[in-house]
Design a protein that fits this description.
Belongs to the binding-protein-dependent transport system permease family. By secondary structure, this protein is mainly α. The protein has a single domain (17-235), classed as MetI-like fold (Orthogonal Bundle), CATH 1.10.3720. The protein is built from eleven helices and no strands. Residues 1-13 have low confidence and may be disordered.
């Protein structure tokens, strides 16, 4: 891909294109990378949430499970992302450029972050509310679906916001192993010029990553508001 874009020449003393000029010349590639970056950021969060819900529920109901969950999740989150990306092909039997490597690695990080958050959110449900639900005849699963999870939504969505922003940042590192996403702009900025960093693609990559993180964060905030209508009612009292 980098070879196809070519190096930035200095033709007749002419300056290389600036930020807008670079985006205009490579709009198709940049939008393709933006789409892949968003997909590789969001999919692991969805997978991680699905895995974290039962783990967090178990840890909130079994005292012995919570310390183990905290220890294991903390250990997993300390693994360097680049090392994990490189190790994934050997673990999964995939090719080095397969996006599955990034999805699985970031899903591990997301579970490491969210499992404890889910456990804390479910554990923070007031005891009198839980007892009232049990007295009304709710089974444990009914109480989880209709009482515990709705009340834990603000805590869980706060964790989701952190996970999404972290993933947007971590996905960019995958460009160093050849996975096409916005991180490609950073590598291009350092490789397209023989006289030093070429800043337009680097700045463009930073701006798009920040905008993407803000948009995804806003989506989670709106989902949180939609799932917790009673909080708006309380705020207006």
């Amino acid at each position: 891909m980098i070879a196809a874009l070519g190096r930035i020449p200095a033709q007749g003393g002419q300056s290389p294109p600036g930020l807008l000029g670079y985006f205009s010349a490579h709009r198709t590639e940049v939008l393709h990378w933006l789409w892949w970056h968003a997909w590789l950021s969001v999919l692991p969060v969805l997978i991680g949430l699905v895995v974290s819900l039962p783990l967090g529920y178990l840890a909130s109901r079994r005292r012995w499970a919570y310390p183990a969950l905290v220890s294991v999740s903390g250990l997993l989150y300390t693994i360097p992302s680049l090392a994990l990306f490189v190790a994934m092909p050997s673990i999964l039997g995939t090719k080095i450029l397969d996006p599955v490597n990034v999805v699985v690695a970031l899903s591990i990080y997301t579970v490491a972050l969210l499992a404890r958050v889910v456990a804390d959110g479910l554990g923070a449900v007031p005891e009198d509310v839980a007892q009232a639900a049990t007295a009304m005849g709710y089974t444990p699963l009914q109480r989880l679906a209709k009482v515990d999870l709705p009340l834990a939504v603000p805590v869980i969505t706060a964790g989701l916001r952190v996970a999404v922003v972290a993933n947007v940042s971590l996905v960019a590192i995958a460009a160093t192993i050849g996975v096409p996403e916005l991180g490609q702009l950073f590598t291009n900025g350092f490789q397209l010029s023989s006289t030093g960093p070429y800043y337009p693609p680097i700045v463009l990559g930073i701006v798009l990553c920040v905008v993407l993180a803000l948009v995804l964060d806003l989506v989670i905030v709106l989902v949180n508001r939609a799932l917790t209508p009673w909080r708006r009612t309380e705020a207006h009292r």
